[in-house]
Design brief:
It is a single chain. The chain is mainly α and 93 residues long. The chain contains two helices and two strands; from the N terminus they run αββα. The longest helix has 35 residues.
């Protein structure tokens, strides 16, 4: 899907609208998740609901920052770096 804008105003209007739609979509998903998780808890053999929603499991490795800081002590600064980036934010009116 390729989208092109002719003007900055057109791009800005589209960006604001998409940002607002994303916020609404996130609120809907956050509200729906507890009910859906409850369904899968009640039906342990189910891996899908209605052929559209799949229950997935993900494992992540997390670093215990407090323990790392304690272990490295003064050497910690050797392993730190600052990453700068630009982003856009929606200003509430």
């Amino acid at each position: 899907m390729e989208i092109k804008f002719e003007t900055v105003k057109e791009a800005a209007d589209a960006w604001v609208e998409a940002k607002l739609q994303n916020k609404r979509a996130e609120a809907i998903m956050d509200a729906a998740e507890p009910l859906l998780f409850a369904y899968f808890d009640e039906h342990p053999a189910a891996t899908h609901y209605d052929g559209r929603i799949a229950l997935t499991s993900v494992s992540q490795v997390r670093i215990d920052n407090a323990k790392v800081k304690k272990h490295l002590g003064l050497e910690l600064f050797q392993f730190q770096r600052t990453i700068s980036f630009k982003s856009l934010a929606l200003i509430a009116k």
